[in-house]
């Protein structure tokens, strides 16, 4: 194995990139094989496939030379009283040289559901290349990025080069259904994280065509609001007009959560939102964001706001309330004349700094109770908080952000936040106190969770190169830091002329 020569790192980088370009068809073939496994974590009938997917991933990581531990995550209780095993979680380690930086990569190999009849142009589990895009469920979320990281490590191995950092993996199989058990896994394996310096997640997408680094995500408080009028559904010809309908109550409650301008109607909800400073306001001006393209990607004609700055702020730094659905309501084909006996409204509030989950919970319950009181309805109202995930904000001055900027090379990456939620980001930050960074390789138009999900061939291969080069850049900066030679300090003192 050739030792790491930082002076020759440009040559090494060239060799790594040449190898990646030359082997791109093999990398694409690996992705095709992974996508062929329908590892949909929401479908208990596909649990065997999901378990197989985790096993294949573990074997792949083991083949890199890593030691792999498969952690039992117990049983998932299903609504019908049955249970199925959760897929195991992977903890793996490659290298333990104390002089090197240790990066832990978190990702998932389960996917969202996908069926041809949902509107896929080609079979979601038979990856198809069209116009240099690789279409298939999991292509960008998250099989492509997980494989790109593995490909990057593999490239060092293939070239018989020493990997300049220690690498750990934490890979799970139930991210799409809420990462059950993962917080406990992190708590119960503190020794695994004790020597980790940096945690990297590549489970989101860029904002534009430009490469990006993500330093923040919103959190989410997800509520169920249940209204029950009786023990069963009723015929509206026989009972319509003489009872307090649960659906009428629920629709009224949901209609009083947010107004047509997007303003949340819950008293006090904006009280803890951190004020926009002049310094932060300026950040939005320079961000490369094509509003028209974003609108085209959405399939919606008109947004609530018309400027780039307003749109980004309302995605990243202000809360929003979305109504997701009603369980128990008639939603099928035709014109059934039913009055549902019990309905459950589902809505969630994206949380931003410095909102607090218990405060939001109380505000929501008080508001719904007071709106409900106006109805003078005898029906039963129950409000429950189902998910409480906090927002995450990183320190962009952490060394790994500098290393990633260097690794991206050709352009300065956009520093972005993400309006959605990766609950694990904040959980990692709070439990491990390590530096967290999101390094997305997928594009804004990849269609995560949507029909015809894809990753472009170029993003997948460039992403592999970025990861490979990130290892080298981080190793260099980490070494400088260890020698008490913090390059950021040097830069500052040089700028000061000292
Ligand atoms: N771009 C990454 C998106 C990851 C994602 O979709 N996360 C979910 C998590 C969630 C929040 N509330 C319920 N699930 C999301 O909707 O943001
Ligand atoms: Zn994901
Ligand atoms: Zn997802």
From TrEMBL:
Names of required cofactors: Mn(2+)
InterPro entries (alphabetical): CNDP/DUG1 (IPR017153), Cyt/Met_Dipeptidase (IPR051458), Peptidase_M20 (IPR002933), Peptidase_M20_dimer (IPR011650)
Binding site for Mn(2+) 2: 108, 141, 203
Record GO terms (molecular function): metal ion binding; metallodipeptidase activity
GO cellular component: cytosol
Manner of cofactor binding, per the entry note: Binds 2 manganese ions per subunit.
Active site: 110, 175 (proton acceptor)
Every Peptidase M20 dimerisation domain range: 230-373
Record keywords, A-Z: Hydrolase, Manganese, Metal-binding, Metalloprotease, Phosphoprotein, Protease
Site-annotated residues for Important for catalytic activity: 235
Entry binding sites for Mn(2+) 1: 141, 176, 449
Gene Ontology BP term (one): proteolysis
Protein family membership: Belongs to the peptidase M20A family.
PANTHER family referenced in this protein's UniProt entry, alphabetically: BETA-ALA-HIS DIPEPTIDASE
Protein name: Peptidase M20 dimerisation domain-containing protein
